[in-house]
Amino acid sequence: MKMNRLLLCTDLDRTIIPNGYQPEHPEARTYFKQLCCLSEVTLVYVSGRNQQLVKQAIKEYALPVPDFAITDVGTKIFQLVQEKWQELGFWQEQIAADWKGKNHGQLQQALSRFPELSLQEKSKQNSFKLSYYLPLDADRGKIIQQAETLLTQMGVAASLIWSVDEPEQIGLLDVLPRHATKLHAIECLRRQLGFCHEELIFAGDSGNDLPVLTSSIRSVLVANADQQTKRQAQQLVEQNGCVDSLYQAQHNDFPLGGNYSAGVLQGVVFFIPEIGAKLKLL
After folding, report:
1. One-letter-per-residue 3-state SS of 230-277
2. Which of 63, 81, 138, 213 is the most exposed place for a label (fewest CB within 10 A)?
3. Nearest Cα to 73, choosing from 156, 115, 13?
4. Are 270 and 41 within 8 A, CB to CB?
5. CB–CB of 43/5 below 8 Å?
6. What is the DSSP-derived secondary structure letter of residue 13?
7. How wide is the angle at C-alpha 229 spanned by C-alphas 98 and 48, nearest 5°?
């Protein structure tokens, strides 16, 4: 399809930030910046990081400044106007309904019965994001199921999102309002900006990206994603009838390889070949 405009939504860590174990092609981020400079592209960062850590990543890795940032695993949305961050308050109002008036402390108290869960630092929490560490060897399936049951009994509509901090080798569990995942935030922003479904592409690498990667949104799973995430993504798109919406980047099918931002570029070019021609990647 011919591209008139593109809402490019991408995760940060181990998607366009090369902080996983695999190598990054030395020219990958240069080409990614060229992509983001195209007048047709509106860039959105979608991250588990908070606002301060997203700012830090942009500076540390010389990333292009986005037009919008969805932070804290989908619980906050910011618009960047002349590099000033303006929070979109309507999103907080929208997701508040899911917790039915229960606050952070009440949910924390209820989940204290699970000794495997240890609370993350204060800087990684917000009013609608309750975040824990969960050891990789814990029976996470059982813990998540029991926690979901407990929250439902309290009348709370929650999403429990599991992911892995690869450098630290620790599991992360985020308790969010049910409609505050990355998927819901992206769809809300898409509608707010007036983009149609076909003008959106998402890129990610890990467990907390799976709700988007396995939806009907055209999505890219970078090649450096772990094997478990790749298997889960494939199974879920088959179950959800969305096989054609997911592109899994490959190491050998692209001049820059498929890791990190090169994988994002590979997927964007797959869905919109004319971009490859513009960037001289085809």
Report:
1. HHHHHHHHHHHCCHHHEEECCCCCCCCCCCHHHHHHHHHHHHCHHHHH
2. 81
3. 13
4. no
5. no
6. B
7. 45
Q: What is the pLDDT of residues 150-167, one digit of tens each?
A: 999 999 999 998 888 877
> Is 148 in contact with 178 (CB distance < 8 Å)?
no
> Could you tell me if 154 and 147 are in contact, meaning their C-beta atoms sit under 8 angstroms apart?
no
| DSSP letter, residue 73 | G
Report the candidate in 267, 244, 196, 235 with the shortest Cα–Cα distance to residue 11.
267
Pick the CATH number of 6-92+180-278 from 1.10.3720.10, 3.40.50.12640, 3.40.50.1000, 3.40.50.620: 3.40.50.1000
Taking alpha carbons only, the member of 49, 187, 58, 233 closest to residue 131 is: 49
Please state which of the four CATH numbers 3.50.50.60, 3.30.930.10, 2.40.50.100, 3.90.1070.10 is assigned to the domain occupying 99-174.
3.90.1070.10
The Cα angle at residue 269 between residues 38 and 73, in degrees rounded to 5 = 75
Q: Where in the chain is the domain with CATH 3.40.50.1000?
A: 6-92+180-278
Q: Please calculate the CA angle 8-10-11 and round it to the nearest 5 degrees.
A: 170
Q: What is the Cα–Cα distance from 261 to 268, expressed in whole angstroms?
A: 10
Q: Could you read off the pLDDT of 235-264 as tens digits, one per residue?
A: 999 999 999 999 999 998 789 999 999 999
User: Is residue 35 a contact partner of residue 265, using CB atoms and an 8 Å limit?
Assistant: yes
Residue of 158, 110, 163 lying closest to 134 (CA atoms): 163
pTM metric for this prediction? 0.89
Phi and psi angles of residue 252, each rounded to the nearest 5 degrees, phi first? -105, -5
Give the distance, in angstroms, between the CA of residue 148 and the centroid of all CA atoms in the same chain.
Answer: 21
